[in-house]
Amino acid sequence: MVVPSSLPPESRPSDGEFQRRAARNLAPVLPLLQELGGMFAAAGHELALVGGPVRDLFLGRSSHDLDLTTSARPDQIEALLKPWADATWDIGRDFGTIGARKGDAIVEVTTYRADAYDRQTRKPVVSFGDSLTEDLVRRDFTVNAMALRLPGVEFVDPYDGLAALAARMLVTPSAPEVSFGDDPLRMMRAARFAAQLGFTVDPQAQAAMTELAGSIEMISAERVHDELVKLLLAPDPRAGLTLLVDTGIADHVLPELPALRLEVDEHHRHKDVYQHSLTVLEQAMALEGDRVVPGLAEPELVPGPDLVLRLAALLHDIGKPATRRFESGGGVSFHHHEMVGAKLVRKRLRALRFDKETIKQVSRLTELHLRFHGYGGPGVPSRDASGEVDSQWTDSAVRRYITDAGPLLSRLHLLTRSDCTTRNRRKAAALAAAYDSLEVRIAALREQEEFDAIRPELNGNQIAETLGIPPGPVLGRAYKHLLAFRLDQGPVGEAAAREELLRWWAGQPEADASSS
């Protein structure tokens, strides 16, 4: 294994320094781990803390998992853990794993593995091993191939994971084409670690990812979904997404994203949609949490990290490639790309096994993300003689904006604001002012009216009685008309609602049929 040349040898901590760090950072669980190590040693077995928890000691990250590996076989592990733990489970027995809980601590102990892969599926032929070193070489990256032997807290690093960690570099313990060929999901993990931990990928490993990109298709959609979600919820998803696109992996798991790299013509008649989408994602993330809006007493709050908002920010423009048209006057259009995009979002998220509610919410935000640009003109508000923003939207239009967004309104606020990536400061300021104005108007209307419970001012029974019709499709149409009337006019009272109902009914063919 080649240690990255950018790392000076003196920057590697000594084993003694590592043990001091381990003792300090592991202090809350060290007694428990040493107790376990003593139990296994007394029974003639090796035991070691391994993988992510060891890596996180150096990164200063808290690790909720305690993953251990041992020379003991599953039946022997269970026999040792049962009298010690408050509870045990063996759902992973076929893979050598027995889980246990003692107090608040959760541990998973796995027999040393020496698996073989058939390269046709990701599922290995499970084979138990007898060596910690052999077990570590089958792990994804050297930063996850370090261990602490217990109970003595002896540092084991046969593949120089500590050096790679100090260089913040992802290197595979074995040749990358072998590692990724055995388990293509490791390529997705590389992108996730880039997003979560700020690591870069060793050039040889990135070349192997590019060469083997198509093999990701043997991985189940559920597994890809899990890695993609972790990536999107990470501090820097752009880094991971860029890696997936640059290596060609995204062509197989999220093809709509690289498809946004539309060729920009020599006249630069539209912006780079791919880079724009990544920037919108970053800007949406920056708005998560408390956000103070001028004129609003309470801050808008979308707690982060918010998966629905981040998915919508990334995918809101995926309808553009299919709708791009170069106009005769030299312009370019993407007419109805929000509607096309909403359909594409539903299709892709279903393929990635997202739940129905997430699919519904992300596609709805995609569909609504352009709605604001009718406010005050084409994205730029006009101003009255005093310089104040002069909106062209009526209260009825604002009501519809609120009700169409429903519970997604706060997220729609953030998505719409994030969608402004212009470098023209004057235009950006005008858009922000327009949206400030809209949010203030929304707040004022919401104070006056209960939008979450808005209903027509005549219920179904009253409509049926007024028109003399039975329940059915015609009654449903009448109800929808009165609901639209309520949104247009605001609260008007039952008498005005009944008058409007009769006016509408007079123009319906069913009214003529009932009178004859």
Automatic annotation (TrEMBL):
Its cofactor is Mg(2+). SUPFAM superfamilies: Nucleotidyltransferase, Poly A polymerase C-terminal region-like. Its EC number is 2.7.7.72. GO terms for molecular function: CCA tRNA nucleotidyltransferase activity; metal ion binding; nucleotide binding; tRNA binding. CDD domains: HDc, NT_ClassII-CCAase. Keywords: Magnesium, Metal-binding, Nucleotide-binding, Nucleotidyltransferase, Transferase, tRNA processing. Residues 273-445 form the HD domain. It comes from the Bacteria. InterPro entries: Bact_CCA-adding_enz_type3_sf, HD/PDEase_dom, HD_domain, HDIG_dom, NT_sf, PolA_pol_head_dom, PolyA_RNA-bd, tRNA_adenylyltransferase. One of its GO terms (biological process) is tRNA processing. Pfam families: HD, PolyA_pol, PolyA_pol_RNAbd. PANTHER family: CCA TRNA NUCLEOTIDYLTRANSFERASE 1, MITOCHONDRIAL. This is CCA tRNA nucleotidyltransferase.
